[in-house]
Specification:
mainly alpha; 4 helices; 132 residues
Length: 132
């Protein structure tokens, strides 16, 4: 990967990292607020549905998902200076450019990601099908 592309991904990853840190923070904050609200009925009038357990679980899941994504982003940033960014951590092949553009923090090539199914990535859309 040339330096210019690498620098572009680095910028993108750092921006994503900042955004995720912020999102994780505010998600955790709103979770804390919900816990307080649930035990404090003198605060703002809340509809019973606002404090339902299901909604709370969804928020926890979102916060956990963002934390995992943040870990992947940070791991990808760490790979840049050691020169393994853009290289599949499982098979050692280069990760396709279209995949890196869609998922700049990808740690595995598309084949390994499909194989392992541990990915939390959004489904890659509009990607050409593998041709045999
Ligand atoms: Zn691979």
């Amino acid at each position: 990967m040339d330096l210019k592309k690498r620098a572009g991904f680095e910028l993108q990853l750092n921006a994503l990292r900042q955004r995720l840190i912020h999102e994780v923070d505010s998600a955790e904050e709103s979770l804390r607020e919900d816990v307080v609200k649930a035990g404090d009925i003198t605060s703002l009038p809340t509809h019973p549905a606002d404090t339902d357990v299901e909604g709370f679980d969804v928020q926890v899941a979102i916060a956990q998902n963002e934390e995992r994504m943040l870990e992947q982003v940070e791991a990808a940033i760490e790979r840049i200076p050691i020169g393994t960014y853009g290289i599949c951590q499982s098979c050692g092949k280069s990760i396709d450019m279209p995949r890196l553009r869609a998922v700049p923090y990808a740690a595995n090539c598309i084949d390994c990601a499909r194989h392992e199914r541990v990915s939390i990535e959004k489904p890659v859309q509009g990607e050409p099908r593998h041709r045999w």
